[in-house]
Amino acid sequence: MRFEQKEDGSCEIIFSNEELKIINNEKKLYLTSETLRHFGNVLMAMVHAWNEKFDEKTKKLITETDTTVEGTNVPNKK
């Protein structure tokens, strides 16, 4: 999977065909400890970069442990 952040601070998570097959069949992705370590390292760098692009309102949002996070379709995609 790869993450593509847009100038407005939004992001698309793009899955490979193989990942899509696994998600479709298993409804989840499994990350080995090594893969999770790499994912975490990449994610930390991306979080820093993402925060640079967020507007001030978004930067002030607070996420609680019970906050629901849901993906959506890409707006205005044709």
Descriptive overview:
This protein is mainly alpha-helical and 78 residues long. It has one domain. The protein has three helices and two strands. Strands 1-2 form a two-stranded antiparallel ribbon. The two termini are 22 Å apart.
Keywords:
single chain; 78 residues; mainly alpha; two-stranded antiparallel ribbon
Write a concise synopsis of the structure shown.
The protein has 78 residues and is mainly alpha-helical. Helices cover 45% and strands 10% of the residues.
Write the layout of secondary structure elements.
Blueprint (H helix, E strand, L loop, with lengths): L1 E4 L5 E4 L2 H10 L6 H21 L2 H4 L19
Mean pLDDT: 86
**Strand elements, count:** 2
Our measurement of the CA-to-CA distance between the termini, rounded to an integer number of angstroms, reads 22 Å
Helix/strand structural class: mainly alpha
Main sheet makeup: 2 strands, antiparallel
Radius of gyration: 15 Å
- Share of β-strand residues: 5-15%
Helix content: 40-55%
The total of helices stands at: 3
Helices and strands, in order, run as EEHHH
Shape: globular
Which regions contain 5 or more consecutive residues with pLDDT less than 50? none
